[in-house]
Design goal:
Elements: H1 2-32, E1 36-40, E2 45-51, H2 59-70, E3 74-83, E4 85-87, H3 88-103, E5 108-117, H4 119-122, E6 129-132, E7 137-139, E8 144-146, H5 151-157, H6 181-205, H7 210-216, E9 221-223, H8 224-229, E10 235-236, H9 239-249, E11 257-261, H10 268-273, H11 275-285, E12 290-294
Parallel strand pairs: 2-3, 2-11, 3-5, 5-6, 5-7, 6-10
Antiparallel strand pairs: 1-11, 4-12, 7-9, 8-12
Helix pairs in contact: 2-3, 6-7
Length: 297
C-alpha cells in the first residue's frame, strides 16, 4: 500500500514538474516576443531598426526588415547603425534585405551613430540615403582574418596533433601548425575575393568606379565629415535629422509616429537556447580562421 502511494506521489510530482516547466517555457517565449512601441508623434508611422553590436548573425535585423516591408502602415524605415562590422555573409545578407526594401519603393534611411565601420558600413549601402554625424567613425572597407597558432605552446607541453587530410589545403589556418608559404597565398586569394566583393558593392551603390573605391578602401577609417567629402555617404545629420529625412521621403506631413521593436528582456530561455548567443559563442570557440568585415582595433 505504501509503495502504491509513493508511486502516486511520484507521478504527481513529475506531472507538476512537467506542467511547471512547460508553462515556464511559454512565459519565457511570450516575454521575449517583440512588440512595437510608439516613441513619438501622431502622424503616419516610421519604423526604426537598430543594429547595436558586432554582426555575428543577420537573423534579428533581417526579420525586422521583412516585417516592416510587409506592413503597409509603415511608410519608411530608419536603419540606425552602431556597429564596427562583423561576419562577411551576415553583413551581406543584411545589405541585400535593406536593398530589397529600398527597391520595393519603401524609403530606407541609414543613420550612423558613433561607429558604423567595415560591415557596419556595408549594411548601410543598400539604403536610399546614408547619414552620419561629423564625428562618426566609418569606412574601414576591407577584410581581416585572424589565425591563432598554438604549435609552439604544444611543443613545450609535449602535445602533438596528428592530421590526416585529403588535400594540402584542407587544414590551412589550423591553430596546430604554422602557415606555409602556399597556405598564405591560398588564404590571401580567399581574403582578396571577399575584399573585391566589398569594393564592388561600394562602387555600385555609391556610383563610383572600382579604381576610385580602391583608393579609399585600404582599411583606413574615416570621420563622418571625411566620408561625406569622399562620397561614401550622402549627408551629415543627427538621428532626428534622419527621422525628418525619412518622413520627407515618404511624403509624411507633420510629425511622424516613430515605432520600434521593444527590446526584449534576456530570460533563462534565451540564455539556454538563443540562436544568436550560440552563434556568438561558436564564433569564439571555433578553430576555423575568423574572416570578417570588421574594423581592427
Amino acid at each position: 500500500m505504501a509503495k502504491k502511494q509513493d508511486k502516486i506521489i511520484g507521478l504527481i510530482i513529475l506531472s507538476a514538474f512537467v506542467i511547471f516547466f512547460g508553462a515556464a517555457i511559454i512565459i519565457f517565449m511570450r516575454l521575449g516576443a517583440p512588440t512595437d512601441v510608439s516613441i513619438s508623434g501622431v502622424g503616419e508611422k516610421i519604423a526604426v531598426i537598430e543594429l547595436e553590436s558586432v554582426i555575428y548573425s543577420s537573423r534579428s535585423i533581417v526579420r525586422q526588415f521583412k516585417r516592416y516591408e510587409k506592413d503597409k502602415s509603415i511608410k519608411a524605415i530608419v536603419f540606425r547603425i552602431e556597429s564596427p562590422g562583423g561576419g562577411i555573409a551576415a553583413s551581406q545578407e543584411i545589405y541585400e534585405h535593406v536593398r530589397r526594401v529600398r527597391d520595393s519603393g519603401k524609403p530606407v534611411i541609414a543613420s550612423m551613430g558613433s561607429v558604423a565601420a567595415s560591415g557596419g558600413y556595408y549594411v548601410a549601402l543598400g539604403a536610399d540615403s546614408i547619414m552620419a554625424i561629423a564625428g562618426t567613425t566609418t569606412g574601414s572597407i576591407g577584410v581581416i582574418a585572424t589565425f591563432p597558432n598554438y604549435s609552439k605552446l604544444m611543443q613545450k607541453i609535449g602535445i602533438e596533433m596528428t592530421v590526416i587530410k585529403s588535400g594540402q589545403f584542407k587544414d590551412s589556418g589550423s591553430p596546430y601548425r604554422a602557415l606555409s608559404t602556399k597556405d598564405k597565398k591560398y588564404l590571401q586569394d580567399w581574403i582578396n575575393n571577399g575584399y573585391e566583393q566589398f569594393v564592388a558593392a561600394v562602387a555600385q551603390e555609391r556610383n563610383m568606379t572600382l579604381k576610385e573605391v580602391r583608393t579609399l578602401a585600404d582599411g583606413r577609417v574615416y570621420s563622418g565629415e571625411q566620408a561625406y567629402n569622399y562620397g561614401l555617404i550622402d549627408t551629415l545629420g543627427t538621428y532626428e535629422d534622419a527621422i525628418d529625412l525619412a518622413a520627407k521621403a515618404a511624403g509624411i506631413e507633420g510629425e511622424p509616429r516613430v515605432v520600434r521593436l521593444q527590446k526584449k528582456k534576456l530570460t533563462t530561455f534565451d540564455l539556454l537556447f538563443s540562436y544568436d548567443l550560440k552563434e556568438l559563442v561558436s564564433s569564439y570557440v571555433s578553430a576555423w580562421p575568423k574572416v570578417h568585415y570588421l574594423m581592427s582595433y
